[in-house]
């Protein structure tokens, strides 16, 4: 069992920045990590992932160039740096862990946090 706790959400104006943190109870290198988000009335959608094998990040088209996923093994924390935020980024953001080397859908992740709300005002 891995405990996953997100923090860092809040309300920001369009064009602003936030950094989300995902603090976990196990060694980061054991898992592939992902960030997903869910807006009201919509399905949970992929935002970013970082593979436990390659360490290479990948992003959804909507956030490429604006968001960055990274990890700090010493702090057991995964980050999502979000810049140039837009009202369309408003959602609950979730951090998730997967055992597999590469994860491409919500069903690939075994552990999820409770989410943190991000609201971007225009």
Explain briefly what this protein structure is.
It contains no helices and 11 strands. With 122 residues, it is mainly beta.
Account of the protein in words:
- The protein is mainly beta.
- 0% of the residues lie in helices and 48% in strands.
- The protein has no helices and eleven strands.
- The strands form two sheets. Strands 2, 4, 5, 6, 9, 10 and 11 form a seven-stranded mixed sheet that branches. A four-stranded antiparallel sheet has the order 1-3-8-7, with no helix packed on it.
- It is globular and about 40 Å long.
- The mean pLDDT is 96.
Distance between the termini: 40 Å
Major sheet summary line: 7 strands, mixed
**Strand tally, please?**
11
Mean pLDDT: 96
- Counting helices, strands and paired strands, the structural category is mainly beta
Instruction: Specify the overall morphology.
Output: globular
* Range of strand content: over 45%
Query: Which percent range fits the helix content?
Result: under 10%
Rg is: 13 Å
Tally of contiguous helical segments: 0
The stretches of 5 or more residues where confidence is low (pLDDT under 50) are none
The string of secondary-structure elements, in order, is EEEEEEEEEEE
């Amino acid at each position: 069992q891995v405990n996953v706790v997100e923090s860092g959400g809040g309300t920001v104006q369009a064009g602003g920045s936030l950094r989300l943190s995902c603090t976990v109870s196990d060694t980061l290198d054991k898992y592939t990590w992902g960030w997903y988000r869910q807006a009201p009335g919509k399905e949970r959608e992929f935002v970013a992932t970082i593979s436990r094998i390659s360490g290479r990040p990948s992003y959804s088209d909507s956030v490429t160039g604006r968001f960055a996923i990274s990890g700090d093994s010493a702090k057991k924390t995964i980050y999502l740096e979000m810049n140039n935020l837009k009202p369309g980024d408003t959602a609950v953001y979730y951090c998730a862990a997967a055992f597999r080397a590469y994860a491409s859908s919500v069903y690939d992740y075994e552990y999820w946090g409770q989410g943190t709300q991000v609201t971007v005002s225009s």
